[in-house]
Amino acid sequence: MTVLAGLLALIGALLMVIAGIGLLRMPDFYTRMQAAAKAGTLGILLIVAATGLLLGNLSALLHALLVSLFFLLTTPLAAHLLGRAAYLSGIRPLVHEDDLAGQYHPKTHELRSVPHSAPPDRAEALPE
């Protein structure tokens, strides 16, 4: 059990290092956020699992399960909200084609979808 816990902790720590490298190396905010959210979440889940296994009692395993559930529920939500706030504040992604450009109402920030196959005269125009 100790070897398995050590292996999980080592892999989790490596994933956390990869998340840190992703924060330094990725070109824009959105890819940095994705690297931190995905690799960081998996890394912390493995470290929490290793801690639960190493402590070995039912209480520690239950706490590890609750902490893992908390991270699995909050990290994607926080990443989504940060990405949306960044986009609405004017930080544009480094992509060839921005599918969201022109789809947000400038005052209410409501997202309107326009079918890509609709003829130009039938598509709803957003107010300026």
TrEMBL record:
Residues 107-128 have a biased composition (Basic and acidic residues). Keywords: Membrane, Plasmid, Transmembrane, Transmembrane helix. Signal peptide: none annotated. One of its GO terms (molecular function) is sodium:proton antiporter activity. Residues 106-128 are annotated as: Disordered. Pfam families: PhaG_MnhG_YufB. This is Monovalent cation/proton antiporter, MnhG/PhaG subunit. It comes from Thermomicrobium roseum (strain ATCC 27502 / DSM 5159 / P-2).
